[in-house]
Design brief:
The complex is a heterodimer of chains A (about 220) and B (about 625).
Chain A (H helix, E strand, L loop, with lengths): L13 H15 L14 H8 L5 E7 L6 H11 L14 E8 L2 E12 L4 E9 L4 E8 L5 H5 L1 H5 L6 H4 L2 E2 L4 E2 L14 H28 L2
Chain B lengths: L3 H9 L3 H38 L4 E5 L4 H8 L10 H8 L4 E14 L7 E8 L4 H4 L5 E4 L9 E4 L1 H7 L6 E4 L4 E9 L10 E4 H8 L6 E6 L5 H9 L4 E5 H44 L1 H9 L4 H29 L70 E14 L2 E14 L3 E5 L6 H8 L7 E6 L2 E4 L7 H11 E5 L10 H6 L13 H8 L15 H13 L5 E5 L7 H18 L2 E5 L3 H6 L2 E6 L2 E4 L1
Parallel strand pairs in B: 3-8, 5-7, 13-18, 13-19, 16-17, 17-18
Antiparallel strand pairs in B: 1-9, 1-10, 2-3, 2-9, 4-7, 5-8, 6-7, 11-12, 11-14, 14-15, 19-20
Classes of the chains: A alpha+beta (about 220), B alpha/beta (about 625).
């Protein structure tokens, strides 16, 4: 059974606890939530880490059904290369963290789910108000190579990237130029996850563009 | 012809607002009733289904699991114990047990899950027994494992959605780094299975380097004693028993409580509806006392009236109930309004007098106007007291005599006082006579006509009708007996017409036939309406015709069963002079040309003069000029 949550158990023998916890949940667990959104496991500490200058944040939920409906979904899918998103019905909730310094909004943190080699990739980026990546955070990935992708060195390659940088790179063929093309794959044996991560960041930026930056520009 | 159902249905239309309000009450009540009963049945079924969907009613697991084990672990105590697979086999042999399935639950720590790691859990299941125990599981895509040792996994829908897995994708068992191929994704079930990753038992045992299990799922036979089995299972060493039967019992108790509440509300709804219906019907009956009396003069038996009232009630209850049930089924409140059928009132057109076509009279019986045969003795020189009218006392009337009253007396009680409304009146009316009774109010003329017309019993005296002794010798007739005589012999017309406003002219005339029809009566309604010059008004409602026309309709109604005697009580009391003349002519023609015996009460001397014989009533006595 997949537990649906990850937890920090630093001072205990996790393996010894796992089975009783599993059995406990088997007897008492309620069904998991139907729709899957990508949320930070520990938003307070995660946002403080991703946005060190922040003092507060606001969580905003949205979905295609409330913002543009089917036409918007089709538009986004077209921008993603025409591939329909897996497990992404119109009402799937998306979460954006609006980050503030005092009363001033200074940026966003947004995450998306993307299919990886052995499981889901939960990819977050923090963005300034111009849509530039300030930090990259891979919350979840499965595989022996996971540490290579969660390393700070890999994440640094995404800092300062914008949506425009992705326009010069074909995420399906893997060809192109510019900053995205320059991102090095730390695990050549895991090309599925590598390209999955690139597509996740691209998808993240496109969603933010459609739902926030273009709206901010229209209503300054 | 009009049926009793049509009469009842049209009666309901007379007070549309009240009928609609009553219907709305019944609709709402039945809607609430059916919805509540449906809810009661539905949630009981749903709970039972959910319990059954667990697949097994009892789980046996190593002691300390699940609650104590977690505590023990946190306190640094002993680890979880496992169960030997043989235990499952021994449990399966018990008579109460239908099926068992061994399960191995394993959890692995995934350091790459989030910041700090997380736990991923797997269910090792026996392909031979587990799917059979949960037949409700359906696949969204793919299917179960190919063999019991395959490196494959089946994912609940939520787990697949969360991990973004499709059939054919791989998953990685953390810690062990074993790859499993996803071969099936289940449909949503609304249970914890949605978040589960199923792996073949042997595969998971291999991955975990174990040959044991953690849990045994037990499905109990339908009529087995679960408590007895639980007690036996508790005797197994180091075993913990988790029974869903206790959960089920608790739920069933809740269901029973809820059912009492639901049924109470349903009964209240039903009572409210019943009170509404009873109120409507009672009001309807009380308001129509006169009309019911008129129906009785037409030949309606008490049973007919009872059936009419019940038909109205049934129409209300059935239609309201059906709509309510419909509402309950479509689950949306709706207000059913009866379409307004307000008839556009036509401008009242007055019709001219119609001469009656000649109806061949019976030459043997016919006595024309002005040629009454007197049977009174000592009547010379002014009015005489009624007792002086008496001529003979006989059980067998002389030929040609239609009606003979002897010493008819009617006394009413008014408190301790006795009112002698009719005081020993004797008279004979011959077949074909047109007799008018005149006199001041309270003189007893209506009482006399009521007795002659068998509308009530006399206090004393005798009455013979068409050769039959009706009253006499202290005989008192019941309502049914009186009705039988009335419908055989009399037709009645009244000052107030008493037409049913929701029935058309044709239906009003046909109304007596709904209760009684003499043999050979065919096409009488149309013939009479034509004869009375009302054929062009057949489909009009009483509200659309003039007073004179209404009385013609009343006359046609009185004649539809071919009565021997027509009793007319102030037939022109509500009409102007011209209409009075018209009605008088009609009555005269009926008497002259059809040979109809007519007994009329009137205040109008002009109308009285049309009859061939005048009897004056004073202080309950009859005097004849």
């Amino acid at each position: 059974m997949y537990l649906g949550v990850s937890g920090r158990l630093p001072s205990l023998n996790v393996n010894r606890l796992a089975v009783p916890a599993l059995l406990l949940m088997a007897c008492t667990a309620a069904p998991l939530a139907a729709a899957v959104s990508c949320e930070l496991n520990y938003p307070a500490s995660d946002i403080a880490r991703l946005f060190p200058e922040s003092t507060s944040f606001k969580k905003i939920y949205f979905s295609f059904s409330t913002r543009g409906g089917q036409p918007m979904l089709q538009k986004v899918e077209a921008r993603l290369g025409g591939l329909p998103a897996l497990y992404a019905p119109l009402d799937v909730p998306y979460v954006v963290y609006e980050v503030y310094k005092g009363t001033k909004k200074i940026g966003y943190v947004h995450g998306v789910n993307q299919k990886g080699q052995f499981g889901v990739l939960e990819v977050f980026v923090s963005l300034d108000l111009e849509g530039r990546i300030k930090a990259f955070y891979l919350q979840r990935i499965a595989g022996q190579w996971a540490k290579k992708f969660t390393s700070p060195a890999f994440g640094k390659q995404f800092v300062t990237l914008t949506l425009k940088d992705f326009e010069r790179y074909n995420l399906i063929s893997g060809k192109g130029t510019g900053k995205v093309a320059a991102i090095a794959n730390p695990a050549p044996e895991a090309t599925t996850d590598f390209f999955g991560l690139l597509r996740a960041v691209n998808k993240n930026l496109i969603l933010m563009d459609e739902f926030f930056y273009s709206v901010d520009k229209a209503n300054p | 012809m009009i049926s009793k159902f049509q009469i009842a249905y049209k009666n309901l239309l007379r007070k549309k607002s009240r009928t609609i309000l009553t219907l709305v009450g019944i609709v709402l009540s039945s809607w609430v009733l059916v919805s509540l009963l449906g809810f009661n049945r539905g949630y009981e079924k749903a709970l039972n289904r959910d319990i059954d969907n667990m697949g097994y009613q009892i789980m046996v697991m190593a002691k300390g699991c699940p609650y104590e084990a977690a505590t023990m672990m946190l306190q640094g105590g002993a680890g979880l114990r496992y169960i030997e697979e043989d235990v499952a086999k021994s449990i399966e042999t018990r008579p109460e047990v239908d099926k068992v399935t061994p399960i191995l639950m394993q959890a692995f720590f995934d350091p790459n899950k989030g910041d700090g790691g997380g736990i991923a859990g797997y269910f090792g299941i026996d392909l031979a027994t587990f799917p059979a125990m949960k037949p409700f599981l359906r696949f969204h895509k793919g299917g179960w494992f190919k063999d019991p040792t395959a490196a494959e996994a089946v994912m609940g829908f939520e787990a697949a959605e969360l991990e973004q897995r499709e059939v054919g994708d791989m998953i990685l068992v953390p810690e062990k780094n074993v790859e499993l191929k996803v071969v099936g994704i289940l449909e949503r079930t609304g249970t914890q299975d949605d978040g589960t990753i199923f792996v073949p038992l042997k595969t998971l045992q291999q991955i975990s380097n174990l040959d044991k299990i953690t849990t045994i799922g037990i499905k109990v036979k339908k009529d087995a004693n679960i408590e007895k089995l639980e007690t036996a299972l508790y005797q197994l060493p180091d075993m913990q028993v988790v029974s869903f039967s206790q959960v089920k019992q608790t739920i069933m108790k809740l269901i029973a409580t809820a059912r009492v509440m639901v049924l109470s509300i349903a009964v209240i709804a039903l009572l409210i509806a019943m009170v509404g219906v009873v109120n409507t019907v009672l009001m309807s009956v009380l308001e129509r006392k006169h009309e019911i009396g008129i129906l009785k003069t037409m030949g309606a038996m008490p049973g007919d009236i009872f059936r009419l009232v019940w038909t109205e009630t049934l129409i209300l209850c059935t239609s309201g109930g059906l709509v309510g049930i419909g509402l309950a089924f479509v689950l949306r409140p709706a207000v059913r309004c009866a379409g307004a059928q307000g008839a556009a009132l036509c401008a009242r057109r007055r019709t001219g007098g119609h001469r009656l076509p000649a109806i061949p009279p019976d030459p043997a019986d016919h006595r024309g106007r002005g040629a009454p045969e007197r049977h009174l003795s000592g009547l010379e020189g002014g009015p005489r007291a009624a007792p002086g009218f008496h001529s003979e006392r006989s059980m067998n009337m002389a030929p040609g005599i239609s009606l003979e009253a002897r010493d008819l007396t009617r006394i009413y009680g008014r408190g301790s006082e006795e009112v002698r409304a009719l005081d020993g009146v004797s008279l004979q009316i011959r077949k074909g006579e047109f007799v008018s009774f005149m006199g001041p109010s309270g003189s007893g003329k209506t009482t006399l006509v009521n007795l002659l017309g068998c509308l009530e019993n006399p206090t004393s005296g005798e009455l013979d009708l068409a050769g039959r002794n009706i009253f006499g010798g202290g005989k008192v007739l019941g309502e049914r007996g009186l009705t039988r005589i009335r419908r055989e012999i009399f037709g009645y017309i009244f000052q107030n017409f008493y037409l049913i406003p929701t029935l058309t002219v044709r239906e009003n005339v046909a109304l007596p036939l709904a209760f009684y029809r003499k043999p050979g009566i065919e096409g009488e309604v149309e013939k009479l309406l034509e004869m009375l010059g009302m054929e062009h008004r057949m489909n009009h409602l009483p509200g659309q015709i003039s007073g004179g026309e209404m009385q013609r309709v009343a006359i046609a109604r009185a004649l539809v069963n071919r009565p021997e005697i027509l009793l007319a009580d102030e037939p022109t009391g509500n009409l102007d002079t011209k209409r009075t003349g018209e009605i008088g002519e009609i009555l005269q023609d009926l008497n002259r040309n059809a040979g109809l015996t007519i007994v009329m009460v009137t205040h109008n001397p002009d109308l009285g003069r049309l009859s061939g014989r005048h009897i004056e009533m004073r202080d309950g006595k009859a005097y004849e000029n």
